[in-house]
Design brief:
Largest sheet: none
Distance between the termini: 31 Å
Number of helices: 6
Order of helices and strands: HHHHHH
Radius of gyration: 14 Å
Strand content: under 5%
Shape: flat
Low-confidence stretches: none
Mean pLDDT: 85
Helix content: 55-70%
Structural class: mainly alpha
């Protein structure tokens, strides 16, 4: 199965019926970009590492309470409520960087 078919098969699991992003499904789709980056060789090793670390940071937070953090933005809401969203290792910043890498690696996915 090609990477693109795998991504398309996982996309429905990334959102609930209301269109909200589900943390686990979203991170599973994000993880699919890692093999693509591998195809470009070691020159993108830092990017691969950064993306992997941000995915893992969000997944680790999700796993602390999968019920509370079922929706991706509940992680962000929780960090904002604790005023913990601005430090460099926050999940909020990790998600921001995942979005930036997505736009940079997939220009067709860039919002208009």
């Amino acid at each position: 199965m090609s990477l693109f078919v795998a991504a398309l098969n996982k996309l429905p699991a990334a959102k609930n019926a209301n269109g909200q992003l589900l943390t686990d499904g979203f991170l599973d789709v994000c993880q699919l970009v890692i093999p693509v980056i591998d195809q470009f060789g070691t020159g993108l090793g830092l990017i691969k590492s950064d993306i992997s670390n941000n995915i893992q940071r969000l997944r680790d937070r999700f796993l602390t309470n999968p019920i509370q953090f079922q929706l991706l933005f509940s992680i962000i809401d929780e960090e904002v409520s604790r005023n913990d969203h601005t430090h460099g290792k926050s999940c909020t910043k990790g998600l921001l960087w995942l979005k930036r890498w997505h736009i940079g690696l997939c220009p067709a996915g860039k919002p208009s």
